[in-house]
Amino acid sequence: MEEPTLRTNVSFEGLTVAAFESRRAAEISTLIACFGGVPQVAPSMREVPLEDNSAALQFGERLLAGLLDMVILMTGAGVTLLMETLESRYTRKDLIAAFSALVVVARGSKTVRALENLGIPIKLKVPEPNTWRELLQSLDGEYGKQGTAGLARLQIALQEYGEPNNRLIGELERRGAKDVLRVPVYSWALPEDTAPLEAVTGEITSGRARVVLFTNAVQVDHLIEFAAQRNARLREALQHCVVCSLGPTCSEAIAAHGLTVDFESESHKMGAFIYEAAGRAPELLKEKDGQRSAGAPITVASPPLPSQDGSKPAYYNSRFMRACRLEPVDATPVWLMRQAGRYMRSYRDLRARVPFLDLCKSPDLAAEVTVSAAEQIGADAAILFADLLLVAEPMGFKLDYNQPSGPWVSPKLQSASAIDALLKTEPAPLALEYIFDAVRLARSNLSAATPLIGFAGAPFTLASYLIEGGPSKSFRHTKALMLRDPGAWHALMDYLARHLAACVNSQIEAGAQAMQIFDSWVGCLAPTDYREFVLPHMQSLFRSLAPSVPIIHFGTGTGALLELMREAGGSMIGLDFRVELDEGWKRLGPTVGAQGNLEPAVLYADLARIRERALRILRQAGGRPGHVFNLGHGVLPETPEQNVSDLIKIVHEESAQLKEERQKG
Ligand code: CP3
Question: Which of 553, 493, 560 is nearest to 525 (CA)?
């Protein structure tokens, strides 16, 4: 192969290029960047010496006893490791003498070099590109073709690498070789730190990395396996990418996963491979995208959801949806407010690269966060990743999520004239389309049996952010406006309720199965003020919502307001942790479900405490249909990740167990 002559017009044209080199990660990054790409490189494998080297030692015994005729050595590192192991028993001199009596077949230049360094004579050197096919061709050349039983009387040992190559063994056996002695000397594992791999997988699933380079077969297997374990929708995403492969072995591994190789390099050298890929990728990507204009987001059409009984979609009979309809369930459904958030390492990693608002406004990232959080922790429902304050932006407010105290909104809405001006503002119809796109994408990426919860803030909580300009303890300005200028207040609440209703209905239309209305801060109000200043607007909001989906109505510090909240609306009331679930639900009456209400800080404790507190809530629910387990507020940032998944398992186990006990009497 001639070295490529550099042509300046060969370029990835700024495309993000994913690659999975380990030892040569820095080199491939530099090469991608040199050819105009944005490199995203994550090691996908590391060599692991097998702790149990019994296969190698058994090989040594047979080698020294003169029972072998041929040894096929597949890798240089394998040769070195094999010798190190054997030298724990035999002298190097004896070993070299024994090897010299065999037909030694070496695959690849590194194997040849390792053997030459040891002074072991090589009978057959497999030519490039060193796949098992060339290996067989070399053997056929020497011993006669398939069917001639050319290998019939030979005792062959095969030093393996990674996964055993069953096709090679099968072919050797078809040529008459019996009982090929397999000598695995090392295998591959994922790297110890998989965060970079997770990040690059995210680049692909989010549609940002559209060119993917594989330089060996193990990378392919590891990446697919890694993504499958995390339920990342990698395969679908790879179909939208230009997949480039370095040579036929690598291409075979890609095809074995049902994926298409868009470009296979004619070279076997990394530099030439990157050069060729850069020359082809932009044009191949355009072909792939067909009509789609460059840079346009990948839109995944919502697939029809498979139904279980022919008429109902698969999520219909999920535990969560059944509980929302106050129907009995096999185990209590559970999801957690802020189940996608800073307690999750993958979320923090993503946030280290993407500002919060950009994340919310990238439908594919928001959908990915939504789906992967629910799947990672095993929740019974996913909640859309977005924020309560996003609706304020098209109303003319600026949002700042960079303050440690919480989100800030400007300008503060504190005068009657500012309210008048706001009421005249008609938000642009498409301004929140990214939220609805995220709903569509999340719905199509979620398992059909998992319901997707959309959400919006309630008018009071949203108004409090607009008026205070950020988080507040006293809600001084909000209450002052409400009590001093009821006319302006009611007009504002009416305006917000209308826009929030539109936002909720669009999410339902886009494919959300349930909604939660967060009136997070309404607990700061006295019941009289709730009745006068909030209740009518909540009622009109609930009346405006599409009746087809269950609505969870949640607030914190609402111990004094529960009956009023039920009067306001919602098929389920979300309780915070300051009320006892049994008492709270009793007060709510038989017509609504109850969601909640573990104190989020309990997740800082040990499993015994978590189990005890979860069980307490399940006992309080007492098997009454219509309980959805949740925290009493969102997951706190420093919560140990494992405790969250463990809580979900505990709720499922203990509730199923309690049900069984109740049935036994
Ligand atoms: O997993 C989920 O619950 C879905 C995502 C979600 C977010 N915000 C993401 C988010 C939901 C449902 C919300 C709603 C929301 N936003 C509420 C109601 C829920 C509640 O907590 O009562 C409120 C009051 C807001 C306003 C808001 N946005 C606050 C108070 C904060 C800061 C809180 C914090 O944890 O720092 C935000 C930012 C925000 N919204 C984050 C997340 C994951 C943290 C942003 C980051 O990554 O730094």
Answer: 560
- Residue with CA at minimum distance from ligand 1 atom 22: 520
Spatial distance between the Cα atoms of 246 and 236, rounded to a whole number of angstroms: 22
CB 427 within 8 A of CB 494: no
Q: What pTM was estimated for this model as a whole?
A: 0.60
- Which tokens hold the place of 579? 């009320």
Rg of the chain (C-alpha set): 32
- C-alpha 497/C-alpha 493 separation (Å) is 6
Bridge partners (DSSP) listed for residue 156:
70
Q: Pick from 334, 338, 356 the residue to mutate for probing ligand 1's pocket: most ligand atoms within 8 Å of its CB.
A: 338
Q: pLDDT per residue over 85-120, tens digit each? A: 898 889 999 999 999 999 999 998 889 999 999 999
Selecting among 143, 465, 495, 530, the annotated active-site residue is 465
Q: Which tokens sit at 265? A: 């390099």
- Start-to-end CA span in the chain (Å): 79
Protein residue with its CA nearest to atom 36 in ligand 1: 406
Please give the distance, rounded to the nearest whole angstrom, from the Cα atom of residue 345 to the centre of ligand 1: 17
pLDDT, greater one: 386 or 276: 386
125 neighbors 106 (Cβ within 8 angstroms) = yes
Pairing of strands 408-410, 398-400: antiparallel
Closest of 345, 341, 386, 336 to residue 599, by C-alpha: 336
Q: In whole angstroms, how far apart are CA 203 and each of 46, 98, 375?
A: 22, 51, 18
Instruction: Write out pLDDT tens, residues 479-536.
Output: 999 999 999 999 999 999 999 999 999 999 999 999 999 999 999 999 999 999 999 9
Closest to 617 in 3D by CA, of 605, 630, 635: 630
Catalytic residue among 210, 233, 280, 338: 338
Between 476 and 108, name the one with better pLDDT: 476
